[in-house]
Amino acid sequence: MAKRVVLAMSGGVDSSVAALLLKSQGYDVIGLFMRTGSHAEDAERRAKTCCSVADSLDARGVADRLDIPFYALDFEDDFGRIKDYFADEYLAGRTPNPCVMCNIWLKFGKLWSYGKQVGADHVATGHYARIVPADDGTLRVARGIDRNKDQSYVLSGLRPEVLRHVLFPVGDRPKAEIRELARSHHLPVHDKAESQEICFVPDDDYLRLVRQMRPGLDTSGPMVDLSGNQVGTHPGIEGFTIGQRRGLGITFGEPRYVVQIEPATSTVTIGHRASLLRDGLEASRFNWLGPEPTAETSCFAQIRARHAAVPARVTPLPDRRVRIHFESPQSAVSPGQVVTLYEGDLVLGGGWIERGI
After folding, report:
1. pLDDT score for 46
2. Is 50 among the catalytic positions?
């Protein structure tokens, strides 16, 4: 019998071609759409998001074209958990990464649990990443062949025991080839735009969402320079992230950046670009995809999605913590973001940045 795979279908090109490739490889494919309850009012916003009603219809159209079963699952309550995390992180002076949490909790958590209930052998997505064996025999997430589209950074939180069940059908092909496959097989989404925004913030107004979710909470406070001198006030720490330059509400003769956010006193510290540099960081809840090293280990560290991984050294600490030192200082190390470590193209693991050092 053909192996069964549940595939997360978002209505985009990548997951649609993933369905095409899996079926051509002989898998028994079941398409699953995660309905979040989010929606966008205008066509331009709908083109940039995923998981909306329009996206569900696009995904169903592809499933019909490929003659595979398709189901829309109600994940609205589960996305409520991610939205709570999103709001609470901003209010704690941290910068959340909801895509990583979605992968951990939903796509490779609840979606895979559903897959096991229907007898699936695998769970698949349209991520640009790969699953490959390391020299020690363990399976690892690895960078996608198309480095410009690589999404391995947001997959470092996957549990090691799940990796043998994970498939990334588009990860070993360039994006241009994925587009051409969609076009040549007449998939109705072949020219659909890339999703660019967080699915539950379809209007891209993060601040409005946070304040709607936590009404009446006042986090306004002082804005100070690096010497502690007050230079103004701000309306709430949820409006700031480390490294932010625009929207400070104060005009200076030269650029200033958010250097630190202190939630206990609602203080935002600003400084020059050079004051953003950090020699390293500490991270918690670190998830090793292979054996945890017993001593300091060389690696490459990536501290945000659009950051080039840099040479570094990682030292394991108790309680799933790590300390990372960069070979050269890095700018805007943001608490709340993920640090993903690599050995070549293979992901060593990832954790949540607690502080820069």
Report:
1. 45
2. no
